[in-house]
């Protein structure tokens, strides 16, 4: 067991406008037709496959219809051979007493949309002392049995994957062992997203011991670089996570990743549009807009070598007192980003094309591009193994 785990990205409708004009902040086109996925903008897809959760798809009627009409590969605009896993997205119904989907319905959905792998209908167990712990454990097991029985009867072309839930190493291992006994050749462990690395390895190791070496294992929501060597040792077949992507705009100071360090993106928000400056008007708005435009001009000048770092930092510092009033200053983080200029050393197609704009924290087209870059960096680390 020496192969590296395959990296899947969960689909959350992550698209950007390929023709976006950064200088004037104008969109070239909007929506699925006009916008592009990370795998369409980078030289190669920055992942081995995609995970599509039913609850996420169902958030929009348009997406649901597109998925049915074009199939999942058509809707994601990937080649028919590109691996796509379908699951229900148990996090989306964690509050419900029982899952909102039945096995027959979900098999029909995986088949109609052309998924390569389909995961049985599971129910998350939030903690060991959760009141419905045993009920959810039983539901997960019964659904796995029903799913496999129906799969044998209907023989759809996708590979059935048994979803395993639990609350400690023993409960995961015991259910995994029963599912392997049912005849599953691939199992996916859920509920690990918030667990410590130590706990994840303990659970995965117990499961591996219980099911033997021939069963493929997928870990939901877990793609942590420091863990990769251990995952190889445990023969983990695949993992998924969108956290590198999402840190680009959800992280406080770790928005732009490189192999060696994480950097803080430079906030240059749009006054009067959203956030703390949404309600600015009159002179206050004009002053903020002045600092915003000066920040953009100076950072581009700095990138070209025409503006000294001190001059840029002075403007960014003035602007920060407005948009981050009372908050913790990020100026020391900004200085580090600007000194190292990580976008100048990145070989990804996003940084090559957008340059310093990728390091600016401002709107979907910069922030999500930075997320695509982060995903690319993460995948490079997978590929190095
Ligand atoms: Zn890059």
Tell me the distance between the termini. 13 Å
Overall geometry: elongated
Q: Give the cofactors and ligands.
A: zinc ion
* Integer count of domains: 2
Rg of Cα set: 23 Å
**Strand arrangement, largest sheet?**
1-2-3-4-5-6-7-8
The number of helical elements comes to 14
- Kindly provide the name of the CATH class of the largest domain: Alpha Beta
Proportion in helices: 40-55%
Helix/strand-derived category reads alpha/beta
Instruction: Determine the CATH topology of the largest domain.
Output: TIM Barrel
- Count every beta strand, where a strand is a DSSP E run of 2 or more residues: 12
Order of helices and strands: EHEHHEHEHEHEHEHEHEEEHHHHEH
Please state roughly what percent of the residues sit in beta strands, choosing from under 5%, 5-15%, 15-25%, 25-35%, 35-45% or over 45%.
5-15%
Second-tier CATH architecture of the largest domain = Alpha-Beta Barrel
Which regions have little confidence, pLDDT < 50, spanning 5+ residues?
none
Mean pLDDT over the residues: 96
Superfamily at the CATH H level of the largest domain? Answer: Queuine tRNA-ribosyltransferase-like
Main sheet makeup? 8 strands, parallel, barrel
């Amino acid at each position: 067991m020496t192969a590296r785990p395959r990296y899947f990205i969960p689909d959350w409708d992550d698209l950007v406008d390929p023709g976006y004009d950064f200088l004037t902040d104008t969109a070239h086109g909007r929506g699925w037709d006009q916008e592009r996925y990370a795998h369409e903008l980078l030289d190669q897809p920055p992942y081995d496959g995609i995970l599509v959760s039913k609850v996420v798809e169902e958030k929009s009627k348009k997406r649901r219809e597109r998925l049915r009409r074009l199939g999942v590969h058509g809707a994601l605009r990937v080649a028919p051979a590109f691996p796509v896993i379908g699951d229900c997205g148990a996090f989306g119904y964690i509050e419900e007493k029982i899952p909102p989907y039945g096995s027959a319905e979900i098999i029909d959905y995986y088949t109609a949309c052309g998924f390569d792998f389909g995961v049985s209908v599971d129910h998350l167990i939030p903690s060991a002392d959760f009141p419905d712990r045993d009920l959810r454990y039983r539901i997960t097991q019964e659904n796995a049995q029903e799913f496999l029985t129906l799969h044998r009867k209907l023989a759809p072309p996708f590979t059935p994957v048994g979803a395993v839930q639990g609350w400690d190493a023993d409960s995961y291992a015991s259910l995994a062992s029963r599912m392997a006994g049912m005849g599953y050749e691939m199992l996916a462990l859920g509920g690990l997203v918030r667990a410590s690395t130590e706990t994840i390895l303990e659970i995965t190791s117990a499961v591996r011991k219980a099911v033997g070496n021939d069963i493929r294992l997928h870990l939901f929501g877990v793609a942590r670089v420091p863990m990769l060597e251990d995952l190889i040792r445990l023969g983990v077949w695949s993992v998924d996570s969108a956290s590198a992507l999402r840190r680009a705009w959800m992280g406080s100071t770790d928005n732009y990743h490189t192999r060696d360090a994480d950097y803080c993106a430079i906030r240059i928000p749009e006054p009067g549009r959203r956030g703390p400056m949404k309600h600015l008007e009159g002179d206050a708005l004009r002053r903020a807009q002045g600092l915003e435009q000066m920040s953009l001009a100076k950072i581009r000048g700095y990138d070209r070598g025409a503006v000294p770092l001190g001059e840029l930092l002075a403007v960014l510092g003035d602007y920060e007192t407005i948009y981050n009033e009372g908050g913790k200053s990020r100026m020391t983080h900004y200085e580090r980003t600007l000194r190292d200029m990580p976008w100048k050393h990145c070989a990804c197609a996003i940084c090559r094309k957008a340059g310093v704009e990728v390091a600016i924290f401002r709107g979907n087209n910069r922030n999500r591009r930075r997320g695509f870059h982060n995903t690319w960096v993460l995948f490079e680390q997978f590929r190095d193994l």
